[in-house]
């Protein structure tokens, strides 16, 4: 449920408690009510927290995906860590299982391969008897001024960030419909909720993932299947120090940009921890939130976008104009860092 507050109402709230904080609280409360109410969701919250669940996490070998996998295992869940880097997935699965109390196994999967994703989901459901959580988390970052990009950059972003999610949805959704329960969680980005100049291919796919998730949520709710979308801001993971896939054409402006420094600056000088984000995500899953946005600064930006899109557009244009005067090239692109590996989740929104 989306609640738009007229400016006068926002001002009233602002005088009472501080405009941004209070409006954020009201909107967050409204979203919670909208996604938790109704007989459609008959799944027990206590079951979700007390009984071991079976979860698949794509891009689970590093970054946000690894943090999600670790949090799930600590809860006692059974986690299948799917990643294009099969050896890394095996190593992480062994490490997490050794700690417990849950367990993890590994699968080498490229999310661009629809048949491979389908086989993973089918085998998991058959082996465990059910599939409770599907985290479509794999993705990569494609950024830079549009004039420096090629169709190959757009194709890769769409193939991984959008089609990879679609493949996961098409594999898991029918299984969950047959069960009459389950939760699909798609990782998008703050770039899927507000404009990020210099990240057009990335932002395009992330807006699409948000739209897919909210549309599917409406379809799945009456049939017992929940859907959430995760939209993080800047998160501190090693992926911030990696560039785009090396097999793509070079993007001079992106190569000249210090991604970690830019994302840190955009995040108010402090990056959010992957473990903290994972805790936020699982808390949002427990509460069946439609859109999970973290950290707090990212939520504030999202609320501002909802209240005044024109203001955020002007801010973005101003940043781009400023960077064009001070950047290393015609304009320092605001990168959308992820990994060159197809199934490693991104480091920042």
TrEMBL record:
SUPFAM superfamilies to which the protein is assigned, alphabetical: NAD(P)-binding Rossmann-fold domains (SSF51735)
Residue ranges, compositional bias (Low complexity): 327-341
Single Gene Ontology MF annotation: oxidoreductase activity
EC main group: oxidoreductase
Keywords: NADP, Oxidoreductase
EC assignment: 1.-.-.-
InterPro entries, per the entry: NAD(P)-bd_dom_sf, Sc_DH/Rdtase_CS, SDR_fam
Protein name per UniProt: SDR family NAD(P)-dependent oxidoreductase
Native source species: Geodermatophilus maliterrae
């Amino acid at each position: 449920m989306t609640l738009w507050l007229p400016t006068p109402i926002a001002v009233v709230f602002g005088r009472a408690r501080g405009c941004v904080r209070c409006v954020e609280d009201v909107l967050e409360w409204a979203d919670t009510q909208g996604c938790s109410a109704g007989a459609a969701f008959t799944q027990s919250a206590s079951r979700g927290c007390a009984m071991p669940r079976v979860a698949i996490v794509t891009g689970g070998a590093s970054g946000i995906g690894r943090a999600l996998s670790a949090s799930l295992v600590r809860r006692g869940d059974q986690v299948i860590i799917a990643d294009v880097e099969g050896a890394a997935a095996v190593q992480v699965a062994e490490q997490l299982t050794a700690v417990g109390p849950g367990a993890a196994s590994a699968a080498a999967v490229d999310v661009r391969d629809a048949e491979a994703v389908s086989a993973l989901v089918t085998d998991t459901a058959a082996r465990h008897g059910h599939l409770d959580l599907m985290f479509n988390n794999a993705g990569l970052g494609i950024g830079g001024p549009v004039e420096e990009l090629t169709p190959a950059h757009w194709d890769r972003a769409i193939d991984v960030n959008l089609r990879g999610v679609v493949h996961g949805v098409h594999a898991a959704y029918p299984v969950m419909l047959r069960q009459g329960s389950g939760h699909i969680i798609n990782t998008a980005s703050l770039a899927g909720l507000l404009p990020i100049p210099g990240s057009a291919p990335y932002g395009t796919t992330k807006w699409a993932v948000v739209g897919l998730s909210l549309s599917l949520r409406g379809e799945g709710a009456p049939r017992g299947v929940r859907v959430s979308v995760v939209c993080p801001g800047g998160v501190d993971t090693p992926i911030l120090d990696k560039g785009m896939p090396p097999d793509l054409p070079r993007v001079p402006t992106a190569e000249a940009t210090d991604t970690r420094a830019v994302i840190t600056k955009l995040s108010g000088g402090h990056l959010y921890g992957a473990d903290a984000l994972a805790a936020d995500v699982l808390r949002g899953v427990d509460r069946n939130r439609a859109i999970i946005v973290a950290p707090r600064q990212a939520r504030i930006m999202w609320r501002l976008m909802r209240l005044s899109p024109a203001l955020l557009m002007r801010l973005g244009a101003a940043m781009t104009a400023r960077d064009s005067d001070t950047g290393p090239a015609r304009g320092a692109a605001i990168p959308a860092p992820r990994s060159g590996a197809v199934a490693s989740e991104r480091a920042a929104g």
